[in-house]
Amino acid sequence: MSTKMKAIVAAASAAAMALTLGACGSGNGNGGAAGAKTAVSYSDVEAALKSDKDINLTMWAWSYDTMKPSVEAFEKKYPHIKVDFVSTGASADHYTKVQNAIKAKKGLPDIIQLEYDALPQYAVQGALVNLAGDGIDENIGKLYNDAAWKNVHVGDGLYGIPQDQAPVAAWYRTDILKQYGIEIPTTWDEYEQAGIKLHKADPTKYLGFIDTSGNRQFIQMLHAADATPWTVDGLKDITLNLTNDKSKKVAEFTQRLIDEGVLAAVPSGTDEFNRAFADGKYASWIDGSWRGGLFATGNPELKGKLAAALPPSWGSSADDVQVGEAGGSLLSVTTTADTKEKQAAALAFINWVNSDPESIDAFQTVGGSLFCAAKSFQSDSKYAEVDDAYFGQKVNEIYFKAAEKINTNWSILPYNNQMDSDFKDIVVPQMKEGGDISSALAKFQDKLKTYGTEQGFNVTAK
Amino acid sequence: MTAATASAPAKARKTKVKERQDWIGIPFCLPYVIVFLFGTIIPLFYALYLGFFKQQMIGGSSFVGFANYLKALKDTLMWTGFGRVFLYFWIQTPLMLALALMAALMLDSQRIRHIAIPRILMFLPYAVPGVIAAMMWGYIYGNDYGLFGQVAHALGVQAPNMFGSQLMLFAIANIATWCFMGYNMLIYYSSLRVIPEELYESARIDGASELRIAWSVKIPQIRGSVMMTLLFSLIGSFQLFNEPNVLKTLAPETINSSYTPNMYTYNLAFTSQDANYAAAVSLIVGIITMVLVAIVKAIGNRWDK
Amino acid sequence: MSAATVSPRKASREEKLAKQDWKNRQRNMRRAEKAAQRLKLTGRQRVMSWLLHIIMAVMVIYCLVPLLWLVFSSTKTNSGLYNSPGLWFADQNVFFQNIHDTFTFKDGVYPRWLLNTILYAVAAGLGSTLIATFAGYAVATMRFPGRNWLLWITLAFMSIPGTVITVPLFLMYSQAGLVSTPWAVILPQLSNPFGLYLMIIYAQTSIPISLLEAAKLDGASQWTIFWKIGFPLLSPGFVTVLLFALVGVWNNYFLPLIMLQDTKDYPLTVGLNVWLKMGSDTSVKELPNNLILTGSLIAIVPLIICFLFLQKYWQSGLAAGSVKQ
């Protein structure tokens, strides 16, 4: 009873405190001036690993199990840096917790895992440390895939170190394609022809599907088609251009594929969808490379019947394929790490975990392979050569090629969550036979402009 | 219960002189008051206070007076969602409560054997977490591979699209009914069991049918419980969240982020990062619900007389 | 406190009276039930009885079909799940393997979630029910300032959507340093307005005021009267409210999701959702659909046991309350 009373009294005083706190509001670098540039230089980072001063860091991540062996390897090698590592559950829940901690100005750990899509949102709120100190870009930047390195920047700031990447790939049901005499398509035009052929031969079958459960698939198509629906300059200047020719082309083409029975518009991940996929209703799946690893556990019965390939090209031949991204994560240092020592140690730690060959090796042995963003992974032939038992292919080779082809002319909106929600409200209802995705994009743009402006960004819409 | 409250003031007046107040009642209520204060009232006033501010990703927070509240009153998304749950209330509540009452009366009629079995089986759905319920019904509603689809295929007809905009409210109403019928049944049943038998024993001996006894003796006796479940269903309907929110994963094309007022505020608070405006909308929805509760309660009081 | 004000002799006498009273009632109840069973049914009544059984069966089937899907699903492998009829077995029955895998998946986090859930449910469920019983009893049987207000304020505030208070609640608990502790999940759930409303109704219909007055004249304290007379009479209500509260806490998703940060502290609903979302998270390599479904089935079992276990008390309590004057 007494501890409960204590808690109640504590909550009461907290309520009073919180009431007064709310009024003064922003605190921490809000108002556009996101986290000031750190004083940590590359030599500080090197020194942090050599020092023998004890440093304790805290970290939150959703992919705890994947990362744990690497973290343990680091602690063994550098025992003076201790990492209190908390598993926060699924990524969606993880973000709720991060956002709440930012709101409460209390409880955020020193290091957090983020997806590239979520990074700008936290960077502009001033919750992350800008890591662009002296020598960092020269010495650390070269360790990672270029597209990934670009993705951890917001404005001129560096707000994280890339961990894994999700270049888009395609998986085809080779048994079905064979049955109907269809080759794996390399361009979207070929994809359309193949899809029409399949659907005509068996109206219950579709060559693929467009996922209505979120923005991921459609937006990555815009990314791959180099449609640049939006550009972000610095921290608060946004230009929306969802009605440009390339965006319109992607929208109209997608609509046509739905109308022709090439793509079915369905939400993925439901019981109905999983049954349909197992039954061969959809002959291909286009998604981030990590999807490849899930087939083996989700659909063991399809072993040997699926083949990975590069996604179809928007150009006229397979050679000019550009690839979008669908996921991928990074590690960021938050403003909770408020001393130079801590920041240096944190940066040294996340860089080691994300790029050191020993850590990369650990990532490859836990629960399948993680598609690391480090060059030590992507350019090492020992990883490219691995024969995947499930696909009977050297799938890494394909994913590596996809990663090389990622279109780097791409910005991420600093309010990606809202974008996803608006996408589902406005664009998804048009993703049906006889829908009008193209004009939905115009409405979508209006909504994005309104929200961005309300949040204090300078938004222009073309 | 209403009868008791109604006569309480009269009694109190009469016994004012003689009877002392039972001050001991206050310590009995104190734990409840404390937890209610800290679990609901204080956070609520905090929310009310938050409603006077505006928080931007760029620019921080500022005092905006009643702007959020005024904006909410003119918010068509909120009113659309409101209209939808109002319609939903009329579809779902009468059906569910009637079924629950029927089940409870049947269990209480002493004509059903081994009542413990149907009683627990009907209560079971209440114990199923919302997300799992959505997965189950996702299978059942499935147009091609689900139960509906398979039955329709066998009959050679087209399965109804439960996820279209016409049937969606019914799909939701069905899940909610499935989930809460047993719950309400249990409330009714336990109230029926405390009706003194003498009240209808003589009627039974006189040969009145069970149906007649149920209608003229039992139902009037448990009207307190009926009223209570009605009020809770009203509140539940206006706070509809779980069922549509999980069905959204199955039918993202039909259910949008402001499908119900509660989904709207949730989305505002956790997706749009606008806890301030979310607070304003919630409070307005809450106040309207309060008024409706009061109206239903007033009508119920008339039923008592 | 109570022992000091009431002499042992009086207390034991009261106890005896109450017990005897209760026994008599139970005996009468049993007799009445037997009499009803012996009652000869006429032809029409027999048809009615058949009809009732059929309607009841239909309602039970309606409630069970979705659950059957869960039961069948828990016997399947990941691939069997989507390659076999939903309401029948797959070729391979791996029910026990699934149970084993569910309990050992991810270093055995599932049993941990189960224990967490039990802790939260018992603490918050029992706590909130007791608190509601105290208050409901007092409102129904005593006269003190504010008694009418309590219920109506409660009901009025219930009309406000719960989502509105989660953010303030989190901010308050965060400042108090209670976030990510069991207190953050238990304390907010101690307030149970539904329970209060239900208890007031039960207390009003099942506690004869005259019995309390008599005990008071005997010099018993309110505290003693509550435990010796009030509480036994309220037991059906108590058990019903407890059952609802247990289920409510057991299945609460949102509060623990917001308040807890470490997966090790999660209750089952939040934990199973983490597994469910693994299929769409990058950097995660598993898709344990069969384990999610098996885990969900196991999660319901303790509630069923609880219901069956409480049923005994519930029915005797009902019998006690049923012969009211």
Automatic annotation (TrEMBL), chain A:
Keyword Metal-binding: no
Protein keywords: Signal
Superkingdom assignment: Bacteria
Gene3D superfamilies, sorted: Periplasmic binding protein-like II
Signal peptide, first to last residue: 1-25
Entry keyword Repeat: no
InterPro entries recorded: Bact_solute-bd_prot1 (IPR050490), SBP (IPR006059)
Residue ranges of the TM segments: none
Protein name as it appears in the record: Extracellular solute-binding protein
Organism: Bifidobacterium aerophilum
Automatic annotation (TrEMBL), chain B:
Pfam families: BPD_transp_1 (PF00528)
Keyword Acetylation: no
Gene Ontology CC entries for this record: plasma membrane
Transmembrane recorded as keyword: yes
Keywords: Cell membrane, Membrane, Transmembrane, Transmembrane helix, Transport
Subcellular location: Cell membrane
Principal subcellular localisation of the protein: membrane
Annotated ranges, domain ABC transmembrane type-1: 82-296
Transmembrane segments: 23-49, 87-108, 120-142, 162-183, 222-241, 277-299
Origin: domain of life: Bacteria
GO biological process: transmembrane transport
Signal sequence region: none
Membrane topology: Multi-pass membrane protein
InterPro entries noted in UniProt: MetI-like, MetI-like_sf, UgpAE/MalFG_permease
CDD domains assigned to the protein according to its UniProt record, in alphabetical order: TM_PBP2
Similarity annotation: Belongs to the binding-protein-dependent transport system permease family.
Name this protein carries in UniProt: ABC transporter permease subunit
Organism annotation: Bifidobacterium aerophilum
Automatic annotation (TrEMBL), chain C:
Originating species: Bifidobacterium aerophilum
Membrane topology: Multi-pass membrane protein
Family annotation (SUPFAM superfamilies): MetI-like
InterPro entries xrefs: MetI-like, MetI-like_sf
Protein name, per record: ABC transporter permease subunit
Biological processes per GO annotation: transmembrane transport
Membership in a protein family: Belongs to the binding-protein-dependent transport system permease family.
Biased composition (Basic and acidic residues): 11-31
Localization, UniProt: Cell membrane
Any Pfam family hit: BPD_transp_1
Superkingdom of this protein's organism: Bacteria
Signal sequence annotation: none
Cellular component terms per the entry's GO annotation: plasma membrane
Keywords: Cell membrane, Membrane, Transmembrane, Transmembrane helix, Transport
Transmembrane region(s): 50-72, 113-137, 149-174, 194-213, 225-250, 291-310
Occurrences of domain ABC transmembrane type-1 (ranges): 114-310
Region called Disordered, residue ranges: 1-31
